[in-house]
Amino acid sequence: MDFIFTNKSKITFAIFMAIGLIALIVGMPHDAESNTRFWANILVNGFFFFGISLGTLFFLALQYATEASYLTVLKRVFEGISQYMWVGAITLIIFFAACSLHWNHIYHWMDPAATHEFVIEGTIDSAHPEYTNDATVEGAIENHHYDSIIAGKTAYLNQGFFWLRTIAYLAVWLFFVNLFRKRSLKEDQEGGTKIHFKNMVYSAIFLVFFAYTSSTASWDWLMSIDTHWFSTLFGWYVFSGIWVSAMITIVLLTLYLKSKGYLEVVNKSHMHDITKWMFAISFLWSYLWFSQFMLIWYSNIPEEVTYYMTRIEHYRGLFFGVFAVNFIMPMVILMSRDSKRSIGYALVVGIVIFIGHWLDVFLMVMPGTVGSHWHFGFLEIGTFIGFLGLFLFTVFRSLAKAPLVVKNHPFLDESKHLHI
Amino acid sequence: MADKVIYATYDDEQVLLKGAKDLVSKGIYIRDVYSPFPIHGLDPIIGVKHTRIAITAFIYGCIGLLLAVFGMWFFMIQDWPMNIGGKPNFTLIDNLPAFVPISFEFTVLLAAHGMALTYFLRNWTLPGVKARNPYPETTDDKFVMELHLHDNHDQSEAELEEMLKATGTTRIEAR
Questions:
Q1: Do both B83 and B26 map to the same domain?
Q2: Complex-level ipTM beyond the 0.90 threshold
Q3: CA end-to-end distance (rounded Å), chain B
Q4: Residue A84 DSSP one-character state
Q5: What are A73-88's pLDDT values in tens digits?
């Protein structure tokens, strides 16, 4: 049965988007502080929802590469979620452009004042002082804003290379989103096993690319907010975060579609399997969160602990609370077989840790940007609702464009008879 | 009257599965099935309940966690406060991150060993215990169904054997 994007849902999501738009207009920057808060919010939501689509694309590619059959009936749901990446990429590019144009100072390393040793004396009081690293330039005096640590990272963290990398990640990921979608629709028409076997090769190429770029993208987009700080585990931590968010979204969306009478072929065993993924990746995320925290806590080196000092000083309850909820709630509630098969438990846990992982991204971005001046105001909640509306609108629209269950996939019949 | 056991041997697990379905639908109680591998879908047919070993594993895990935390609290804080790398060593909560890996390891250790030992004890498959398998070939390529006369009062031995023959068994033996 084809999915119909009803007018009722369209209006609901339009209202969501309107709330988001109003929140953004009300919170529009009018001074330096709200500048940071406004754009940090865009990054939190832009990255979180983009991450869901990226995590889903990764999971889809994983299915292809391992030739897994059990979730073939849900393939269209994965494709639908990953289609949001187009919109998500645009929101991110708007944000990075705003950073490059110095509309905000979220990335300190983009500020020429931090990376140049000298400033031209005559221009120092103007709106755009001229900076240089050459002491012999006429009128060059010592720059008091110079930050030798940030300056030492300019080989990697400079605008040109940053844009080159960002465009490369987005272009390649979007290429694969498109490729898998197109081939999947083609398979519906043609059948056979040719497309299937070739998908395996494409997904393997994607996974290798993704393995590197998921790490470097998280360094570029999130870790470089706290420019002085670095952690080699950060890429994995962010990756596990987007993966678990993707699994939660898949579970919630599947439950929604089933409640509306779609996806009749999806049985309790399929629900058991995807809820198990949500359960398992929650552990991966908790493990990496804690590994990063404990090693830094134990070695107690000043340049490393700054990251956690800010968080524990200003975000204590939220910081540890988010970890506790995202770890303990799925563990205790979803441990038994029966709760993984029950709609109620999966729904409640899914909604709570969905918000939990949004807060996790919030905690990656906010301490390095607004610091102690953080709020949960209309701007934060409104932006979240707005992006949620945009996300759901895009996903539902792409779900409605193709049959909700694939046809002619070689594993379709096997998947329909999944029984565990 | 002493109980009598009827063993019916099958060459194919699908034949056994279909036969078991037929027999159960006629009200026959099948005590057990011996098979070289798990037969998918057999458990609900012959009425095998879900294993409770997961519950025991959870309990052993909880015991392991509590023991680990108690032990570390006693060794590292209460009995002889240890100063490692200048970390605070006066309360459990201050030191908790350092204790987490050991708590985790001990939880897994107790859960895994407890589960394995429970399994062996419950099945009584301990070193030196004689195997209770009626047909050793069920560990190779044969499938055996076990029926007890006591479980099936309504049928006589001859009737049961007649019903078993109809399911395509290759050998019937009563002991």
A1: no
A2: no
A3: 14
A4: T
A5: 999 999 999 999 999 9
